[in-house]
Amino acid sequence: MKKILGILALTLMAILGIAPSAMAAPPTDIIVEDTAGVLYQPQLLPALEKISFHSPTKVVVFTRNGSSSDNFNDEVLRYARSNHPEWISADGQKWADGLFILAFDPAGRQVGTYMGEDRKVSLEKQEAIQGATKDLFREAQWTDGAIEGVKKGAKLINQPWYLSAGFIITSSITGGLALLGLGIRAGVRAKNRTKAAEHLKRGDAGFANVSLDLPVTELNAKTIPQSSTYGSLVLEKYRNFSTLYNEASGLNQQAHAFSKKELSKAGNVKVTAQYADLAEELDRLDDVIADTNTLLNKYSGWGAAWDRQTGSLMDDLAGLPELLTQREAQGQPSTAALAAFQAQRMQGLQQLSADVQAGIITPDVALDELRNIQVELTNLLQEHSTAMIALYAKTSSERTSMQKAMDRSRRDNIDSRPATILGSVSNWYMFYPVYAFSTGYTSGQSAVDTARTQASSSGSSSGYGSSGGSFSGSGSSSSF
Fold first, then answer.
1. In what order do the strands lie in the sheet with 474-479?
2. Which residues of the chain have pLDDT under 50?
3. Burial of 359 per CB tally in 10 Å (0-12, 13-18, 19+)
4. Contact predicate 54/154, CB 8 Å
5. pTM over 0.70
6. Is the distance from CB of 63 to CB of 39 less than 8 angstroms?
7. Which of 57, 138, 318, 327 is the most buried (most CB within 10 A)?
8. 338: Cβ–Cβ under 8 A, 6 or more apart, which residues?
């Protein structure tokens, strides 16, 4: 038991950074061989001087401009043999003791780590050192990336056993699992309370609006003309309104009866989410009932009600030009089709509003035409989506990834659509908002780019090639 307690105490001190540490020593020497000309030494040198290693270590930062097809390890060795033989052991077979080299190629997109036998670390740790640089290197932040690489090297080279991830993980599992479990449980419970509070705030806002408008909503429903196609469809929605309101009222009481402790439980958080979702649905529906009554009967304010029906489509048409000016969209048949649609339908929508205003067509006919325009836009965007994905994706898996991202954006943006008659009586998913296309396509590109980067940077090479001869110094390289 004493031994276990000792291990736990040492582990805790290691985690907190107060355990007895090995020597904390700044680099014994810093050599910068920036043959690629990408480092800002007034920033680099002071930063490296402040880094502490566990053992006295000579630090070399070497850059070169080459090609991604180069054997980077061999190129670093070749440079060392020609320009710095002191970096190599006396027998010419290893890197010199006490040495740590961080090398990278901005043009060939490769980074390598090399070290003397008394400073060598596992291949896994070498990959970790290289990995510390890659996000910054991908953004061409060469100096910052080099600093991060040396910092990571200083942390892992000759790392004391009690600071190693393996020791901390093993000892934590051995004696600290219960504490970890308690910490996780406390975090989950706190997160549940936060979620519940957000749901309650959202639900209370919607429920208050619905309750306040309840008498007016009932009056509006009574005067909606049942002879109207859209009027009858909205009235079908209203028939369940009272039932849903009573359900929301019950959920309201149940959600507010939960104590703070009870709101920490996931099951009760689901109740608050159901309450919020239902309250928001009813809030949207009573707005639709009001607009349906006002528009179909052409009561005072019907023009504003009509504008609310066309608002989202007008936004879509206004957003098309930006979508169609993307460089990769140029020359595509789907781009030309959308451009022609935008010019024609923008004018047609204005004429449609004028015809409703003049009484040339009924609100029902106008809503039919509005629906037709939205369906036409959806079909054109789907064709454009297929074309754009085919252009950007190189493999079937990339096409699938992009399609999933675009579908997800389309689905996630449904709730942000305004409450309209068409949206209420139809499934909003049948319509395709332009902004959902834009965000989905961008998200799809990002997913593909990330996968490509990970694929290109995965794995590492530790060989020096045939020109390295019998050299077997510790080191490896990888792409970024």
1. 29-34, 58-63, 99-105, 110-115, 474-479
2. 1-2, 5, 16, 18-21, 167-172, 174
3. exposed
4. yes
5. no
6. yes
7. 57
8. 320, 323, 324, 380, 381, 384
